[in-house]
Write a structure and sequence with these properties.
By secondary structure, the chain is mainly alpha-helical. About 40% of the residues are buried. About 75% of the residues lie in helices and about 0% in strands. Helix 8 (about 175-185) crosses helix 9 and helix 11 (about 235-245) packs antiparallel against helix 12 (about 250-275). It folds into 2 domains: about 25-100 and about 150-220 and about 230-310, MetI-like fold; about 340-558, Orthogonal Bundle (MetI-like fold), CATH 1.10.3720.10. A hairpin with a 2-residue loop joins strand 1 and strand 2. The strands form 2 sheets. A two-stranded antiparallel sheet has the order 1-2. Strands 3-4 form a two-stranded antiparallel ribbon.
């Protein structure tokens, strides 16, 4: 009996995660496809024929590809250059935290911060005016709501660079310094070091990062809806218009558009994987210090100050704006300060307080489910070897690559029948799609860092499974848990489309309110509103941190 249990125990660990993801993705895509072939309520592929002859969709599709490709390549290129040059500084905890600060904010909030900074009446044009390089606001180029999507690209590049840093820093921590010294000794330069020493190990992570960033950018709704032009639109925005528009005959086209986008992502990811498969090498050793000459140290410091500017300047602008009463073009700082924005937000906007409570509750429930499902799944992937494991890994990471919108469109019909539509529980379930893969990935890395030897020793001394987890793994997984708390909370707070779709107007979160506020309220109120999106993850982190400390103390005193 015990042998049978030990053989299937791994499947119990991984089962809940597979069930959640496969059931949501499989049913969602299948139902979305069935809805996409309803041509005037008759099954037909004519919807796809009409779609590919629709000039609006073709323009939207090409536009989406262009924005996603440019944003992804720039993010990866700049992130790689910054890691290579600033790594000596980024090895320390505090500089890393500074670099990762933008990840505290949802993408559309960061987009608003850049709007305050780079719009025609923003701080940068004002500064150029003060310095005499700019005559007036109209002399500064239009970067937002433009037909090329410059504002969208800027937002994604600025926001995704910290994610690229997050992915690459662990690789540079493990690169062998001996090989670098050998290349330099043989007369090589920095390019030779990168190509011969770093590239084989960095490339797999760059490819994985490309998959994640590209799939997200091409299918995301919030930033293009907030900062994009009326024509052309990203496919996600066009899908929203068709699905929620007054013409119900357009709904099959909304489903078909997202199915086409899903197939496009899968094809591009598959081709990229095939092209880079032979060059993949994984690290198998760790080496410590990295020696740098004076020129490299100077470059490292410059790059680090650049990262600080990228991280802190937009936040500083939005904080000052939240306390400004009058800030005219051509002024470096507001001429009059006031707490009016915060006063309106706290005392005269009860709907924001209610939405904050709902957002916190949803984020906490999403976080709890992520941890409950993620811990056993991550441990299984970290320590177990079995036939079909690569398929399991692909299934668990698939929500990152498949647009969440297409899955939500499909499961929406099932949620209506189950009574989960227009209900917070349905929103919680659909928020698992963009969060659970990251949770499993982060916790798996944590388990692999800790290793299995301590657990084996504990079992040999008669320890039970829960005791082993509480005493050995939990204290050492705290850094991973903190990362999960921040990432899951920020991702959940930033979901507008799927929350509006599944919530149906009955579940009002902060992201649901942000869009109408952006169109109607003044910058002082919107800036104060934006800061809330960073305050909530910090509040939840403090709550979780306190709960974990109490839990560990109780365990240690037993």
């Amino acid at each position: 009996m015990m042998k049978w249990y030990s053989r299937i125990k791994g499947y119990f660990y991984i089962g809940p995660a597979i069930f959640l993801i496969v059931s949501l993705i499989g049913y969602g895509i299948w139902m979305a496809f069935l809805e996409s072939i309803k041509y005037f309520y008759v099954p037909s592929l004519d919807v796809y024929r009409d779609l590919f002859s629709d000039e609006q969709f073709i323009a939207s599709f090409v536009y989406s590809l262009r924005v996603a490709m440019i944003s992804t390549f720039l993010s990866i290129l700049i992130g790689l250059l910054l890691v290579r040059s600033a790594y000596p500084k980024l090895r320390n905890t505090f500089p890393r935290l500074i670099a990762w600060i933008p990840m505290l904010f949802p993408h559309f909030v960061w987009g608003y911060m850049l709007f305050l900074l780079l719009s025609q009446s923003g701080l940068i044009p004002s500064l150029l005016n003060i310095l005499g390089f700019l005559g007036g606001p109209k002399d500064f180029p239009i970067l937002f709501k433009d037909s090329f999507g410059i504002g969208i690209i800027l937002t994604y590049v600025w926001k995704e660079i910290p994610f690229v840093l997050l992915m690459l820093i662990p690789i540079y921590e493990q690169l062998s310094n001996n090989r670098k010294e050998l290349v330099y000794t043989l007369g090589g330069n920095q390019w030779s070091v990168f190509w011969n020493v770093e590239r084989p190990y960095v490339l797999p992570v760059l490819v994985e990062t490309f998959f994640i960033v590209f799939a997200f950018v091409i299918s995301a709704y919030e930033v293009p809806a907030l900062l994009g032009a009326t024509y052309p639109k990203m496919v996600s925005v066009l899908t929203y218009d068709w699905f929620f528009g007054s013409d119900w005959t357009k709904q099959p086209y909304a489903y078909a558009a997202m199915i086409v986008l899903t197939i496009t992502i899968v094809v591009i990811v598959f081709i990229t994987f095939l092209l880079t498969k032979r060059t993949r090498i994984h690290l198998s050793h760790v080496n410590g210090e990295t020696l740098r000459n004076e020129g490299e140290r100077s470059s490292s410091l410059s790059s680090y100050f650049f990262i600080i500017g990228m991280s802190l300047v937009p936040i500083l602008v939005v904080v000052i704006t939240s306390f400004s009463l009058e800030w005219n073009f051509g002024e470096l700082l507001p001429s009059r300060l006031s707490n009016r924005g915060w006063h309106v937000l706290i005392w005269h906007a009860p709907q924001i307080f209610d939405a904050a409570i709902v957002s916190i509750a949803i984020s906490v429930f999403v976080l709890l489910i992520n941890l409950l499902v993620g811990f056993p799944a991550a441990k299984n992937l970290a320590f177990q070897s079995y036939r079909g494991k690569s398929i399991v890994e692909t299934l668990l990471v698939s929500p990152i690559l498949i647009p969440t919108i297409v899955i939500a469109l499909g499961v929406h019909l099932a949620f209506i029948r189950l009574g989960l539509a227009n209900h917070w529980l349905g929103v919680v379930l659909v928020h698992l799609l963009p969060t659970l893969p990251y949770t499993i990935k982060i916790l798996r890395a944590g388990y692999e860092r800790v290793g299995k030897k301590q657990e084996e020793v504990a079992y040999s001394l008669g320890s039970k499974e829960m005791s082993t987890f509480s005493l050995i793994y939990l204290p050492q997984l705290l850094p991973s848990i903190r990362s999960v708390v921040f990432l899951v909370t920020v991702i959940s707070l930033g979901q507008y489309f799927i929350t509006a779709l599944i919530g149906g107007g009955e579940v009002t979160t902060l992201s649901i309110l942000f869009f109408p506020y952006f169109q109607t309220a003044d910058d002082t109120v919107i800036a104060s509103f934006s800061i809330l999106f960073a305050v909530i993850p910090i509040m939840i982190w403090i709550l979780v941190e306190g709960a974990l400390k109490v839990m560990i103390q109780i365990i240690n005193t037993r």
